[in-house]
Amino acid sequence: MSKSALTQQQLWTVAKWEFLHFFKLKQEIISKLIMLAIAGVIYLFATASNQLEDSYHLASNQPFSIKTEPTATQFKFTKHDDLTAIIANLAEDTEYDGVLEFDQATHTYTLITAVKSAWQTSLQSLLTAQLQQTQFDSLGLSEQQLLGLTKNIAIEHKVLDELLKNQADRSQTYTAFGVLILLFVAMFGVFGQLFVSITGEKQNRVTEQLLATMTAQTWIDGKLLGQILLAVKTMLSTLLSIVLSMLFFTVVIKQQALDLHFVNWSLLPWFFAFAIAGLSICAAFMAAVAAGIDDPNHSSKSALMMLPLAPIAIAFFVIESPNSILTIALSYLPITAFAVMPVRMSVVELSFWQPLLSLLLSIICFYYLRIFAARTFKMGMNMYAKEPSLKVMWQSIFNSKA
Amino acid sequence: MSLIINNLVKRHQNVVAVNKLSFEVQAGEIFALLGPNGAGKSSLVKMLVGFSSPNSGSIELTDDGHTYKSIPAHLLGYLPEDRGLYPEKTLKQNLQFFAALHGVKDSEFTQRCAYWLGKFNLTERLNDPLKSLSKGNQQKIQLITAILHKPKWVILDEPFSGLDPINQELVVEFLAQLRKQGMTVILSAHQMAMVEKLADRVLLLNQGESVLYGKLSDILANAQSKIIHVAFKEALTSQTISQLNETYCVEHIQDHQLAITLTEQQSLNQLLSQLLTIGEVCEFKNQAQSLHAIYLHAVAEHNAQRVQGTTL
After folding, report:
1. In whole angstroms, what is the distance from residue A182 CA to residue B235 CA?
2. Which of A205, A378, A384 sits opposite B83 (nearest CB)?
């Protein structure tokens, strides 16, 4: 086997080892089954609470029907001149679920039920809509007047800054922030896993054995690859869970169509590319810090590992001024670009080369950070149970060779 | 194929760990690195495997027309002093991982794994987590990890530590088998009895310097000729022994028996003449010396020389 082929094999062996060390198929299946079980319980509960596809029979002192489809078919009204007996027997009565009483004097409706249940809320809103319509009808309004009364008043916001997109609408950033939140979830996983993995191997005294088989660089690269794949898996499975939950609540429970209009499909590939670049940079940074830690219980460097989360927090603030010099600078700075550039792209018209340049800078940054991580690791390994200071770690970037 | 170390120096800040060390390891032999704690063995091993670089001097390994400045990973099997594997993983997972890192194919792995586990009576434990094994058995797995890919060069740092006498013998057999398979073994150890059984050549280090270096058989033969066991017909007085001690290194074994160590400048004839002036000699013979005794003597002598050098 040639040297480069062996290095490739070692890289994938370490990545696979790292991935499978933290990816437990059995646990994944169990967690998904738990989700399904919870969904099933919710569905059963909703059905048991007569929320879904049940019909309700109400007694009323005047002829009544609900015109709005399709929910209206749930409710059937029967006229009775004397409701007193029905009201008195409501608790035991199996024929009527409630009584709708109309007061001619005050023009008000009263809904009387034996117990409180979810269907009564939807009936109330249907009644409100219908009575409002009846009121409009009784006024004898023209169609134009009626339209004027019922139309929602929308205020369109136009911004004169030519760089901004047509609307200064925050909903444009939902996709970017959605991806950032997924990234945030994945990043937390990477934090813990890389820390446990690198310091754990040091504690288990396995590092010398490993480095007798491959270079520190191959080892770090394999670890990073495994962790990035794990993070992508976390992002995708979290996304899948969110989409399935939305589908379940919208389509199954509410029986409505799923509305995904807020997703910015054209920018989505860019956002994922930036997310993976950000993951890589942060993972390489964390690997470098973890490589410099000898004893995880007594190291002050552990706090440094939280640093890569800062750019995600920054992204929430820059949205207020997407064209300020600071925001522009942060959207190209590799350690913040993965969070800031997607948010900027959502609200500012950018040329193709701008996000591309930002992405390239991020990739270059990742390339050097992983070298830094490998050098720190090799230097720390030869320090004989001493932990390298930040100054020594910095010097190792330029001095040693992994 | 040989490993030539020339004038090697390694400093850790102000401490000289290895001082102007030169030696050669020949292909196919078992080469023992001996020395007390802090002698510089680990520093030397780390340079040999390429974990650290020397401050001066050179390491030169020639193999198949290539020259290397340390033993490259593809030729090396290494058992570090500071050792461990993945305790939560099974024996198979641990062995397979390291075999894959060395490019061993799955079919070869299965075959070799079965062979070595059988040798160490661990076949039944293949799917057990490593942490469920005793410390000694874990060490055997670590040894298998180091050689499963059939390396040309094997460096074993303290392979006998933590093992009971029966398992130490198993490791001796294991090392002999490696030599039989054509591997070159460099081992660092404190168990002189084990080294004496195995090593072809030894290098004794003390305070980073070479104290004794050469073929083990030559070293033992040379030491044998230097220690003389003498028995007198009558008991010796302490005054007589003191007089002898002025010229020779004398150990008083019993009332009428002595063990005398000669330096290279002292001759047997001179000694015999002097002994005859003391009393009637009834026994005069070379005493066989163990590697352990040679080791202690050589280190003590080297320490004394260094103290003398410092004082002067």
Report:
1. 92
2. A205
Q: In this structure, which topology does domain A56-145 adopt according to CATH?
A: D-Maltodextrin-Binding Protein; domain 2 (3.40.190)
Cβ contact A236:A26 at 8 Å: no
Kindly identify which residue of chain A lies nearest to residue B12, measuring between CA atoms: A383
DSSP-derived letter for residue A294 is: S
Contact criterion met (CB below 8 Å) for B225 and B194: no
Check whether the bond before A70 is cis (ω within 30° of 0): yes
Q: Is B56 helix (H, G, I), strand (E, B) or coil?
A: strand
Look at A212 and B83 and tell me if their CB atoms are within 8 Å: no
Q: pTM of the entire structure?
A: 0.75
Domain segments of chain A: what residues?
A: 56-145, 168-399
- The answer on pLDDT for B305 being more than 90 is no
Phi, psi torsion values for A185, nearest 5 degrees: -60, -45
Looking at domain B2-214, which CATH architecture does it have?
3-Layer(aba) Sandwich (3.40)
pLDDT for B310 beyond 70: no
Lowest mean pLDDT among A268-277, A323-332, B166-175, B259-268: B259-268
Q: Where are the domains of chain B?
A: 2-214, 221-311
Model ipTM?
A: 0.77
Point out the residue among A205, A210, A212 whose CB comes nearest to the CB of B49.
A212
- Span B158-172, mean pLDDT? 87
Burial group, residue B193, by CB count within 10 angstroms (0-12, 13-18, 19+): middle
CA distances from A41 to A27, A53, A191, A245, B199 (A): 21, 17, 34, 13, 72
Identify which of A308, A307, A362 has the alpha carbon closest to the alpha carbon of residue A332: A362
Chain A contacts of B49, Cβ < 8 Å?
Answer: 212
Q: Is B73 on the interface with A (CB under 8 A)?
A: yes
DSSP string, A118-168: HHHHHHHHHHHHHHHHHHHHHHT--HHHHHHHHSPP----B---TTB-SB-
Asked if B97 has any chain A CB less than 8 Å from its own CB, the reply is yes
| Beta-sheet strand order (sheet of A56-60) | A75-79, A56-60, A98-103, A108-113
Residue with tokens 């499909």: A265
- What digits encode the pLDDT tens for the residues B117-155? 998 889 999 999 999 999 889 999 999 999 999 999 999
CATH topology of domain B221-311: Alpha-Beta Plaits (3.30.70)
